[in-house]
Predict the 3D structure of the following.
Amino acid sequence: MSSSNAHHSELGAFLKARRRELSPTQVGLPDSAGRRRVKGLRREEVALLASISPDYYTRLEQGRRQASEPVLDTLARVLRLDDGERAYMFELSGRDAARPRRRTPQKVHPQLRRLLDDLATTPAVVLGRRTDILAWNPMAAALFTDFARIPVEKRNFVRLVFREPAIRALYPDWDWVAQTSLAQLRMEAARDPNDPRLAKLVGELSLQDPDFRRWWGAHRVAVQGTGTKVLHHPVVGELTLDWSFLTCTDDPDQRLITLTAEPGTPSHDRLRILASWAARSADHPVADG
């Protein structure tokens, strides 16, 4: 399948998933009498709200028509898309063309490596394409798991969230963490829908994990930013950590993720305890794949 066809097919599936989440009453339409055969809005109702013909909208969902920017804007409003979902829809439509994707093996950028070396008390990980884990520091290994024991081809954050028991047990709100990481992975799929390694990852996890299969089918998307995570660590207990991204200017496909705690909080003190524990019990150097 060509990149263009793959985008159009995914756009259709995305539109279908979003309209099925809306009821007629949510968008100001009368709920027709009788039971509906499918959940959510009908195609004809979306077309009516967007002031386009039902045939035009049907072709969009079938991947046989490319929408104009005004139509996409209208559909974003009708389907109540958030900023991330709207950006995803435009990218799939080809209106915000993605840069050419490089599929050569990634190595952590030297600048990010130096930053990892300097973060002695801050857990930090470098993620590459498909959320592959390219590098980490001892604090990240102490917080999450010993990444070095995981084969390079399996060293992927989304995979570990779903398939690694030690990481899964860290999150009391695992469902939310898993769905958020998966939604970010779907943004990757929009940028390079024909990436064979991404297709293999999605295929394997869909077969292995029913939660992944169900949530991937929901076509949720999310943009990267900042946020807060709560983790229950087996050594130091509960940690409330703020995470943020730093994108490498020379390679935008590499992102440094740091996790910090507000000074003066119990989580801040526990990170210091974790750093001391890591220094005593492990001698892992900063590693990369």
